[in-house]
């Protein structure tokens, strides 16, 4: 059974560099010491143009005449089936179905202390699932899961020898939905707006999990001055009682008790359901994580009941501290300048993402800003491993309404639950260029929501710096900026105008420098009390931004512009962008191969920490 390409063991999927042989099938940071069955591959497929499938009980019986490969986008599947009217322009409903045999290791009786669990790496925007014609509820109790960028799971009842899995996926151009730069009813495809990429976009797998267990999400906050790490773990309990959580920290790439550096136990009385718990562990003599020295440790967390039964999860983590003090940024109490690049992975495969990230490191970057997109979460693990700081963003809705804010908050919470493990992630943007918050300058409800989310993240996730609205129109309340960074998007191909813009920015002339005023709300007077980041610039070669198209001339112009940045009190910059995507032809890296189009080290300006 284990020779089958769709069977695997979670613990066998970690491997050291070189990355050419780095294999990691499951898109998640936390692994279990169990076997799993990947349900990727060929599925039956049908388009439901009139949305009649639920009423007609397609989940009970339906003749599927087409096939599609999972994972893959609805758009790819429509194109492959030559469906009339594709690409879709308003709403799309599609169905997937396949049979699978019960794995030998799967639960076969109610007396077992394990449960088969079905996990979708990502699917959406709306996903509804039936097993053998019976509707399933997610662990959170959803009949219809909403969201398309993060994973979700179902606990299954006893499996039959052969089982039928049916999935309905619905998406639309609704501008209230978090969609990043995918087109909507508000922003149409073209320029910086892209084709939709939705549906069954990541792997799906079946595994056995304990009835009483730790969920596969771990939050990590370091207190480096005291060699302390605060872990936030989530328990899932069916049988209330007294448990203990045992934490063990090892040097990476060690097994058994080899490399043990710290351990502790914590007794807990747990009720049925789900509960988060913070636990603090002392890691004496800890080596810190940084781009130059990406030291990682291995955490093994066990939930143990009174009978000694164990549920175990494992993840890598690093100790690091990232903060803003006055006009400077500090990593592990050492000043750092952010040499960043904007990255829009689009529909890149994980193999392409790996090549892109390594190429960005070769360019001299120590930061990648993953631009307003849902992305394969394995990118975070890779950044942890190779030493790359990440700036992540919530995919934005396209209009400002109460519903869009509710959707935005739900998406943010889903992302935070799964990304809080990674030392590489240091900055979050709530919004970008007021997409989905177009009324930020005058709508108190919009500003209040963003300020509340900023304050929440300050308290709950102190390991991150948070940007309220990247690019311009940051929020000031009583003269206090509700953003940890004052960021500006500055586009010009003219060197003299570039010098003028940087001078205006660093002097604090915030109304003249960007497309819109940099701050809205109460008056804000810049006096170097917050770091300045030019979070987008360049774009040389994209027709909207101008500048050289020839790679040699582009490299020369970048060198001149970076030199001007280095002359001023700026804490970091983000060149736009890493690769070409659709109409934005301004990439420095070949999308397919990861080869550099410009000299290595071009974007490095100062020594990296």
From TrEMBL:
One Gene Ontology molecular-function label: hydrolase activity, hydrolyzing O-glycosyl compounds
GO biological-process terms attached to the record: carbohydrate metabolic process
Keywords (A to Z) from UniProt: Glycosidase, Hydrolase
Signal peptide span: none
Domain Glycoside hydrolase family 2 immunoglobulin-like beta-sandwich stretches: 226-320
Superkingdom of source: Bacteria
Gene3D superfamilies xref list: Galactose-binding domain-like, Glycosidases, Immunoglobulins
Pfam family, one: Glyco_hydro_2
UniProt cross-references to InterPro entries, sorted A to Z: Beta-gal/glucu_dom_sf (IPR036156), Galactose-bd-like_sf (IPR008979), GH (IPR017853), GH2_Domain-Containing (IPR051913), Glyco_hydro_2_cat (IPR006103), Ig-like_fold (IPR013783), Ig-like_GH2 (IPR006102)
Residue ranges of every copy of the Glycoside hydrolase family 2 catalytic domain listed in the record: 324-456
Keyword Secreted carried by entry: no
Keyword flag Nucleotide-binding: no
PANTHER family linked: BETA-GALACTOSIDASE, BETA-MANNOSIDASE
Family (UniProt): Belongs to the glycosyl hydrolase 2 family.
The protein, known as: Glycosyl hydrolases family 2, TIM barrel domain
């Amino acid at each position: 059974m284990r020779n089958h390409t769709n069977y695997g063991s979670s613990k066998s999927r970690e491997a050291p560099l070189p990355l050419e042989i780095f294999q990691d099938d499951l898109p998640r940071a936390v692994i279990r010491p169990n076997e799993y069955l990947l349900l990727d591959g060929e599925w039956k497929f049908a388009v439901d143009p009139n949305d009649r499938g639920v009423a007609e009980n397609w989940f009970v019986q339906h003749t599927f005449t087409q096939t599609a490969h999972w994972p893959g986008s609805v758009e790819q599947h429509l194109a492959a089936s030559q469906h009339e009217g594709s690409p879709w322009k308003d709403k799309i409903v599609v169905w997937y179905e396949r049979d699978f045999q019960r794995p030998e290791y799967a639960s076969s009786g109610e007396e077992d202390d394990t449960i088969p669990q079905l996990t979708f790496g990502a699917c959406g925007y709306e996903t509804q699932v039936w097993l053998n014609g019976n509707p399933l509820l997610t662990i959170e109790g959803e009949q219809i899961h909403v969201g398309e960028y993060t994973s979700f799971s179902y606990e299954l009842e006893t499996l039959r020898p052969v089982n039928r899995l049916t999935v309905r996926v619905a998406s639309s151009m609704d501008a209230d939905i978090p969609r990043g730069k995918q087109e909507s009813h508000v922003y149409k495809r073209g320029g910086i707006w892209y084709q939709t990429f939705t549906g069954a976009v990541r792997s799906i797998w079946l595994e056995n999990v304990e009835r009483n267990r730790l969920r596969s999400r771990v939050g990590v906050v370091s207190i480096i001055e005291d060699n302390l790490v605060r872990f936030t773990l989530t328990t899932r309990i069916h049988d209330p009682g007294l448990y203990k959580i045992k934490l063990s920290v090892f040097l990476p790439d060690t097994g058994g008790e080899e490399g043990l550096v710290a351990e502790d136990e914590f007794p807990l009385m747990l009720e049925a359901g789900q509960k988060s718990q913070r636990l603090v562990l002392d890691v004496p003599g800890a080596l810190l994580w940084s781009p130059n020295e990406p030291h990682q440790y291995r955490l093994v967390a066990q939930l143990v009941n009174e009978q000694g039964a164990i549920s175990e999860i494992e993840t890598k983590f690093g100790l690091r501290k990232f903060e803003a003090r006055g006009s400077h940024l500090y990593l592990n109490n050492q000043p750092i300048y952010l040499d960043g690049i904007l990255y829009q992975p689009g529909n890149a495969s994980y193999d392409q993402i790996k090549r892109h990230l390594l190429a960005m490191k070769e360019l001299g970057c120590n930061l990648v800003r993953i631009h307003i997109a849902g992305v394969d979460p394995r990118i975070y693990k890779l950044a942890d491993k190779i030493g790359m700081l990440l700036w992540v963003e919530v995919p934005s809705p396209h209009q400002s309404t109460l519903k869009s804010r509710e959707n935005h908050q739900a998406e943010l919470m889903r992302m935070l639950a799964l990304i809080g493990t990674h030392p590489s992630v240091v900055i979050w943007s709530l919004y970008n260029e007021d997409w989905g918050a177009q009324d930020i300058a005058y709508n108190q409800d919009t500003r209040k929501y963003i300020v509340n989310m900023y304050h929440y993240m300050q308290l709950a996730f102190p390991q991150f710096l948070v940007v309220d609205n990247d690019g311009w129109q940051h929020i000031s309340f009583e003269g206090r900026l509700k953003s940890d960074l004052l960021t500006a998007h500055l586009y010009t191909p003219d060197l003299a105008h570039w010098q003028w813009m940087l001078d205006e920015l660093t002097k604090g002339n915030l109304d003249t420098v960007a497309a819109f005023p940099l701050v809205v709300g109460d008056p804000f007077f810049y006096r170097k009390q917050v770091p300045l980041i030019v979070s987008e610039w360049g774009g040389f070669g994209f027709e909207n931004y101008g500048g050289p198209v020839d790679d040699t001339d582009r490299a020369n112009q970048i060198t001149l512009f970076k030199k001007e940045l280095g002359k001023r009190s700026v804490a970091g910059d983000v060149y736009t962008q890493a690769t070409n995507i659709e109409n934005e032809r301004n990439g420095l890296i070949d999308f397919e191969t990861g080869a550099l189009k410009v000299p290595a080290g071009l974007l490095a300006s100062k020594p990296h920490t």
